[in-house]
């Protein structure tokens, strides 16, 4: 195995195992920033060792064992710490005597520990923006650059947020817990935002070779279902769950056998998961019963429901979708929501109407590096027969896309725009 192959393997395993490592160490150490720091040390150990020795047969178990040993070393160096740390170290020594039982390490059930970690990262002492950035770093394993891209902000601003958040958690002595009652309510909106962002990263990966990261979608769905049981009377909890269920129902149809993306209007709807669609519709109905039809997640779920309930692409109620996006823009001022509205308007009223919205957004600073802006513009231009402009727009979008699958898709669309008939495929 070459060093490059080893590095790719390490990062692939790392994206899957990082949340398990952090939650396990946080549970033992009761210190989230320290757990995250030791987890990063474990990654460095893998990067140093695996290129020479090869990837272990059970890489997740190797990472867990190494992380726990580093935690034990840290506690041994801190003999002047509180008595509880000595007890934890004793427990870990006992556990280590049974090593290397790699199967038992892998079976270390994090259960709802991941959700507990998110609640800890979403403490009101942290700013709303810092909560989300810190959780995305720890749960999704996203880099500072990837998180900055998700928030359409400079890298330095995100780095500063993460550093401050870790410092606040370290200095405050916050309990590693899932709160209840009023404390749960205080953190709930931030927790919902983090779960939403985790799902989105799984649904369309920011970077890497794969367009989808199904394990993140599944984890976000699991946490959404747990949250629905923890806060059954909160309409937006059910709205988020509906949104995730309905989007996830299309997973099997979103890529071909080679993993290449298939756009929604080209998907085989027979592959859409009807059971998952029904679960999403039931969750959406629950928000209506709770009089929560106008929430951020609920409105998005209603949009996706329009797609899910259309038997064919031609049956899609684009006018209703455009109206729902209009409601969303009144609720949240977001250039990305406005871009999505442009797609719906372009489908409902014609490409010129959509293009007029997109052209206004071209002057929006926050979207300067956002690849879907020129992508949507290219689609609308192509429908108008302005093929050379469309090609240039798709090329610009491809240059901005960090995900390889998405980059390749946009390059193909640029090539098609040169002379092929215009398709009716919104991104």
TrEMBL record:
GO terms for molecular function: DNA binding; sigma factor activity. Residues 118-169 form the RNA polymerase sigma factor 70 region 4 type domain. Gene3D superfamilies: 1.10.1740.10, Winged helix-like DNA-binding domain superfamily/Winged helix DNA-binding domain. Pfam families: DUF6596 (PF20239), Sigma70_r2 (PF04542), Sigma70_r4_2 (PF08281). One of its GO terms (biological process) is DNA-templated transcription initiation. Residues 187-287 form the DUF6596 domain. InterPro entries: DUF6596, RNA_pol_sigma-70_dom, RNA_pol_sigma70_r2, RNA_pol_sigma70_r4_t2, RNA_pol_sigma_r2, RNA_pol_sigma_r3/r4-like, WH-like_DNA-bd_sf. Residues 18-78 form the RNA polymerase sigma-70 region domain. This is RNA polymerase subunit sigma-24. The lineage of its organism: Bacteria, Pseudomonadati, Pseudomonadota, Alphaproteobacteria, Hyphomicrobiales.
